[in-house]
Amino acid sequence: MPQANIKDAVLFSIAISLVLFLGCGGEKTEEYVAPEPEPEMFDMPSQKMAVVYTKGDPSIVGGQKVPAIFASVNAIIPYYKEKGIEFPRDALRARWPDLNYLPREQWTGIWGLPIPFAVDSLPQKTEGTEVKIEVWEYGKIAQILHLGPYANEGPSIERLKDFIERSGYEIIGTHEEEYLTLPGAPDPKTIIRYRIREK
């Protein structure tokens, strides 16, 4: 799990890009309701994403690579708005497939921002950083809303895993987080999420 100093550095580095994206985007998806702080389980549809990959300490490579997502997405918003396609102002997500197995200097980070399924290409606006289009599969998921510092996520993760186990399910997907607040927010809010299946 990324620690506070790592996440704060990375998220601070993308704050300006995120603010610009929120200013250019469409309406917030009306049916979206932030989850309650208790674990929950439901079916989640797949989502097309603008994605960048990082390898290494997130406090270094994240700040270098993640802003490219917003640069690419911001560049196409006016074109799609003319077609009547709005971009939901959804939060940045990240998947951490090996954070429990490798030292952070070797972590793989998969950072993604939701985009409409109508988007079939992205301009590459940042030299040296490729922004890809992927579809993130979900299906049955379990998640919990963590309130508070990133460094204190441990108990929330354990509550979520215990909930999954008691419900007769097992984790099949990688650790995913969705960052609902900007860097420096007095009350950070982070969704912790896993894909699951019945045992």
Explain what the structure shows.
By secondary structure, the protein is α+β, with helices and mostly antiparallel strands. It has a single domain (4-198), classed as Multidrug-efflux Transporter 1 Regulator Bmrr, Chain A (Alpha-Beta Barrel). The protein is built from five helices and nine strands. The protein has helices at 4-13, 15-24, 58-65, 67-82, 153-166; strands at residues 40-44, 47-55, 93-96, 108-114, 132-136, 139-147, 169-171, 175-179, 189-198. Strands 1, 2, 3, 4, 5, 6, 7, 8 and 9 form a nine-stranded antiparallel beta sheet that branches. α1 (4-13) runs parallel beside α3 and α2 (15-24) runs parallel beside α4. The radius of gyration is 16 Å and the shape is globular.
Overall tally of structural domains: 1
* CATH architecture tag: Alpha-Beta Barrel
SS strand fraction: 25-35%
CATH overall fold name = Multidrug-efflux Transporter 1 Regulator Bmrr, Chain A
* Uncertain residue ranges: 22-29
User: Which structural class fits the helix and strand makeup?
Assistant: alpha+beta
- Tell me the quaternary state: single chain
CATH domain class name: Alpha Beta
Helix segment count? 5
- Tell me about the biggest sheet? 9 strands, antiparallel
Tertiary shape: globular
Helix content: 25-40%
Q: CATH homologous superfamily name? A: Regulatory factor, effector binding domain
Number of strands: 9
The radius of gyration over CA amounts to 16 Å
Estimate the mean pLDDT confidence: 85
**N-to-C order of helices and strands:** HHEEHHEEEEHEEE
What is the first-to-last residue Cα distance?
25 Å
